[in-house]
Amino acid sequence: MKSIIVLGLNFGGHDTSACLMKDGILIAACEEERYIKQKHTRDFPINAINDCLKKANLSINDVDEITLSYDPELLKPENFSKIISEKRKKFQKNDLDKLRELRKQDFDLGNLVKEKLNYSGKITSHLHHLCHLASCYYPSGFEDALVISHDGIGEVDCSLMATASKGEISIFHHGNQWPNSLGLLYAAVTAYLGWKYNSDEGIVMGLAPYGDDTKIVDSIGKSYREIFQEIIHVNGFEYEVDRSWIAFHDVRSKWVSDKFIDIFGPRRIPEGKIETHHKHIACALQNRLEEVILSQLKDCKEKFGLKKLCFAGGIALNCSLNGKILESRLFDEIFIPPASGDNGTAIGACYLSTKNLSNEIQFSKLDNYYTGSEFSDEEILTELKNKNIKFIQPENIFEYTAKKLKNNNIIGWFQGGAEFGPRALGNRSILTAPFPGEMKDILNSRVKFRETFRPFAPAILSEFTSQYFDISQSSPHMLIAVTVKKEKISEIPAVVHVDNSARVQTVDKTNNPLFRKLLESFNKITDCPVLLNTSFNVKGQPIVNTPGDAIDCFLSTNIDTLAIGNFIAEKEDN
Predict the structure, then answer these.
(1) Residues 369, 477: contact at Cβ < 8 Å?
(2) How many Å apart are CA 475 and CA 460, to the nearest integer?
(3) What is the rounded average pLDDT of the residues 495-508?
(4) CB 40: neighbour CB atoms within 10 A?
(5) Distance of CA 204 to CAs 226, 313, 542, Å?
(6) Alpha carbon distance 537, 94 (integer Å)
(7) pLDDT tens string 502-520
(8) What is the pLDDT of residue 293?
(9) 405 touches 418 (CB < 8 A)
(10) What confidence tens digit (pLDDT) does each residue in 75-107 have?
């Protein structure tokens, strides 16, 4: 039987990406931002496409189908009724006109793709949130599961809920539609607090534990918690955002309403002082998000009784929320793909098109998301020589690097294929020992230049996980925040957040063998199976993609040692 080759694209919004699937197996997945050095880019993912084809040793004409994870055709008046929910049809005309005006997206993506790639084959589109659902269900390895998606906005949906069984996804809730969006509300508050929307929501999540939403807002005589309960109303699977508090539905990039500013005060200036009330707002937002999602999930569990959960969409990157879901024990296991945001919809689109092209293909659990740019030792060696970098080739790079980590070196670790998604999972990482506690601040001041309250994540040998953290399942994608065991906090203080939580990454023998060897070497000489793992970049830049990127970052920061392929480069004063 001829192989089925599908190229999936996320294009038409932010975090553009490409992936290539052959007979239901993910061959390559790449993000455009890594190539053009612009985080969350909206540019056509031409570099990502070319790298996918290169990794698969294919040309564009070998592709059976190009599939898109967004369908602007559904926003045309004649098609809009296909996706608008029954309860909102009376708002159809006004909402459609405003939505199209704000999004400024009425172009034909299919023809644009054909022109960009000189492609004459079949091009299809899938509902954005259905791609999110597919991206987390099919690689989960679960036969039966509840499958949910929450993000800013797809075509008009802001979330989608379904059950899945034996490879079939059945949508049961299609009602949370623009502007009733948890993702857009979180983005709006992120912008109000002085950070970048669709980018820095994780900073707000990290700030939340420093606040107290039971405090009273003097201007209105209510607590922060009460106000955010008014902003988001919940009724079963439905939630509604009170429009008097928001402006994103009416004025592009205004985000919050004048009423919001009257109550909470003026917007924080970027890089300005973080006041106490900013912390309380972050706390109230995070707590209300968790309340809403957990309320929905409890209703889902009562109705369907499913024991497994698959979760995707930008909201699924909120590791504190994911930790609360796991802690609730509503589900025996949850699966969240590393590229839960819009970049991952390219994979979801590939799954959906592959299934449409052949029902005979059976999808299996996906463990390998290290499918981005990859370089041979010969290519790395050439780059080191071109940049006139002194280097050595140790007999055992894992033991050599582990000794450097024990001596509190900051390590740039560049190995294998690039991870797909926003988290560094051991192939494009900056690493340190998880001790002493000051290591976090040293790393921040010397390399990362991030806000001091933001935590760093621990990577741990999987067999030690339950000794250090309150978690009963694997967490290979660093997307679940869990409580650190009290007796272990003093052993790994640099990776423990203010609320004694940590965004843990479990590393077993299959998901990243090279990174595991380093953890094993470090554990052997320190009796500690944990390393601090953060992304190989500086604030505001995408994760490094090429050997040249890694070397440039090494040279321009105070990283002590670069472990790149089988080579070691060190600063002369180290």
Answers:
(1) yes
(2) 10
(3) 97
(4) 20
(5) 19, 18, 19
(6) 44
(7) 999 999 988 899 999 999 9
(8) 97
(9) no
(10) 776 776 666 655 555 455 566 677 777 666 556
Q: Are β-strands 5-10 and 65-68 bridged in parallel, bridged antiparallel, or unpaired?
A: parallel
Burial class (CB in 10 A: 0-12, 13-18, 19+), 352: buried
Going by pLDDT thresholds of 50, 70 and 90, the confidence category of residue 54 is: very high
pTM for this model (two decimals): 0.95
C-alpha distances out from residue 423 to 110, 140, 371, 417, 477, Å: 30, 18, 14, 14, 7
Residue 71: its pLDDT value, please? 85
Interhelix angle for 319-328 vs 276-304, to 10°? 40
CA–chain centroid gap for 245, Å, is: 27
- Confidence tier at 390 by pLDDT (50, 70, 90): very high
**SS3 assignment for 392-409:** ECCCCHHHHHHHHHHCCC
- Three-state DSSP state, 324: helix
For 160-195, give the secondary structure using H, E and C.
Answer: EEEEEECCEEEEEECCCECCCCHHHHHHHHHHHCCC
Query: Which residue carries 């689109």 as its tokens?
Result: 349
Determine the pLDDT at residue 423. 95
Is the separation of the CB atoms in 355 and 361 below 8 Å?
yes
Measured between alpha carbons, how far is 200 from 277 in angstroms, rounded to an integer? 19
